[in-house]
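In practice, a research group might receive sequence data for several interacting partners and want a quick structural hypothesis before committing to experiments. The following worked case mirrors that situation: the sequences arrive first, and a predicted assembly follows.
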Amino acid sequence: MLRVFFLIATCFTVLGSAQEEKINWLTFEQLEIKLSKKPKKVMVYFYADWCVYCKKMDQSVFNKAEVKAILKMDYYAVKFNAEYKDTIYFGGKSFVNKQIGKKRNPFHDIPKLLAGRPNTPLELPATVILDEKFIIKGRYNRYISPKEMVSILKH
Amino acid sequence: MRLHVLICLFVMNVALSQNQSVKGQISYADAPVAFAVLKLSNDDGVYVTYSDSKGLFKLSIPFGNFSVAVEALGFKSKYSTIKIDKSNSNNVLIELEEDLLGLDEVVVSATRNRVNKKEAPIIVNTLGEKLINATQALAVSESLNYSPGVRVENNCQNCGFTQVRLNGLDGSYSQILVNSRAVFSALNSVYGLEQIPTQIIDKVEIVRSGGSALFGSNAIAGTVNIITKDPVLNTWEVGGYLGLIDGDTPDRVLNFNGSIVSDDLNSGATFYGIHRDRDAWDANGDGFTEVVELKNTTFGTKFYYKPTERSRLTVDATVLNEYRRGGDRLELAPHLTDISEELTTNTIMGGVSYDFNNEANTNNFSIYSSVQYTDRDSYYGGLGGGRTAQDSLTALNAYGVTKDLAMASGFQFTKQFNRDVLTTGIEYNIGSTEDNIIGYNRLIDQQVNATGVYAQYEWKPNSKFSALVGSRFDYINVDGFYRVGSIERRVDMSQATLNPRVTLAYELMDDLKFRGGYARGFRAPQAFNEDLHISSVGGEPQFVILSNDLEAEFSNAFTGSFNYTKEFNTMQTNFLIEGFYTVLEKPFTLVSTGAQLPNGSIVEEVRNGEGARVYGANFEFGVSPSKKWLFQVGGTVQRSEYQEDQILFESDGSNPGERDILISEFVRNPNYYGYLNTNWTPNETYNISVTGTYTGPMIVPLVVSDRGFLRLNESSAFFDLNINAETHFDVSDDFQLTLNAGVKNMFNSFQDDFDTGPMRDSDYVYGPALPRTFFVGLTIGKLH
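A structural hypothesis for the assembly, expressed as tokens:
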């Protein structure tokens, strides 16, 4: 309880009015630059326009002050449309969307790699938590409530 | 602070070992890999470093053999060990290879998958929100035509009563479910389909033929399952619709709905309401309606609560108030007109269900109960063209009251084995109907109690073959008393039947599936659906009564189908051809016995008819080259024939011009019918759809004398084409707007030989439900 209070207090004092602050969503290219300057934990969030639970994540999870505060302090946050069409350069390699023109919902290689599982279609929303060394620590192919999100991010 | 600790550690590390400065590069296919984590380890220690943006790394490490681990997105090291010595210490090359599946060690929690439609042992046709939108259907009944084998027909000029035919069999052979529960009562199935507003519907699932034991024993033609929306987002919307029937008769709708769902998705509620006000329309200027006046207000809510992660409580409640009036001179009290059918219906329905799973999600339990109570004031009658004191007295006595109670409660248990699924359950239904018109001395007082026990096993021995084998045991008790004038009938029977159901599915090729099925069904003698409706003929009411020794009806249904589903890149194709063959033993058949009652009213008897068979084929072809285009066409070719000619009108021989009317095939049943559905969505802002139905010629009986004598007419074919254009504006994240406009029945393909005047046969209607109708609609709100 005290911790929560402390956290809320910090986010109010440090960030000013946290409620109006938006999450600083990064692209993978921006993430690369940030990581090279200062390694930090990373949260990657994959969504698609047709995904209703993704909208729920936007409306009910990523707008919560506590979630925003933790992400701001301890994480680099990446939001990525799983159907992104263009090439992404990351880690010296290029990643493309090989399914364009082949699938109804063409998934980019990055979500397939980070959030995919063998023999199972990619399910959205997908949230991937990586540590400072860019090693996957958790992967969630489902809706995460704000409470759970806070505990995942703090863990 | 943290940096300081890190430096300390680093310094300690240097101090404690004989480390050498080693440089190197991490690469994949000759290209450097940036920000990869390199981990070298042996018995003496673990050394970790990152590569920089050029793939280069530096490390302080003693010479020796190390095992290599590289953690980079989608890569692993090409080799497992490396030797570092003086010769390579300035240029340690770490080559990587692709590792697409190496990420699966992380524990994953995933959402439960829905059953893939393609895999299902039974063919399910789904009508989604998109189609409902495209056809601008205001009630469920309007959108059902867009599925193969389904035809919705309008049965009465005076009250607009509709029924759904599946595979050519009338409404009493199919079961209408709301959220998979049978809450439609005998009375409700008369008008109920018109009363469910489409905005609360997520989709409608249609299963033709009774291949599943889970459905009622009468559901031999199939089931129509109306699935209501389950909210996820907090949304609201308010919509309005204005239609102009034949260009001048208004049909107005105002509706709203809103959903609130908690952040953790553990509770949520939806509220909805609709008000519809449609004026009556007269096709031929005889002063009598062809499309009835309608005023409907519905309000409802559905909410859920999840006490734990694995359980869910759902409660829903709807109240519905409807006024219908058809006939002539709608401004007068019904008994002062020639013909009036006036119905004021108050319905309240609600249900509770509780579902829970075990931890492994393999056992699912469901307990449910739903109740529906309807109180209806009716007026079926009028002066019928006469102006004598007797006519006035008769007209004054045509007011009636109906009370209808239906209850369905049950328990279902589903167990998932590795591949197989066992479903078993028990269901108890009560139906109590009392329909009383004192003036005609007409009474229907019926209690039906039915208990069904079923078990079904879905067996999947391998990936190609699956079988759905099940059976249901039904025990039904009907206690009914039926009276019209001096005719009285009583049914007091109990019957137990065992109805086996089998469906087999075999995947012939990757994209081609064969399915075959058998189902046995039965119907106990009872008043149902149209038996509760009174039409008007020759200025007098026409009653339906059960015949004296009506016996249960049995049926056997066989189906076989081939379904081809393939995706060529973004193009989706689907082809279905399905044959059906249904044999009815002693089917319930309406036979007109002429003007039996002293006041000249015609009585139709429900009798066990001649054995009959209905057979034919349904097809559906769909292709969607991309998300922008959708083309779908489907239809049915069928025959329905009695083994021996069936009597429809029984002459008493008193009138030389009248003889028995016999027929070899079903009436009101076209041999060919179908639909088409096309949609073009060039972008997120616009979409245009063209939909249409074709109804082939059919035989429709017309009463031509006040004694009930019939003439069998052949109707012409109809092609009912609709167009709807829609545009969507995102004003902000929280506010959107959708505008649409279009025409229903563009070519005004409509019946042109309605019977006219006060003596008309109000059942002589067929073909499309509406003439050419222009419409506009507007929806605002937080739509997504």
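Before designing any experiment, note the following. The longest helix of chain A spans residues 2-15. Residues 87 and 96 of chain A are 5 Å apart (CA to CA).
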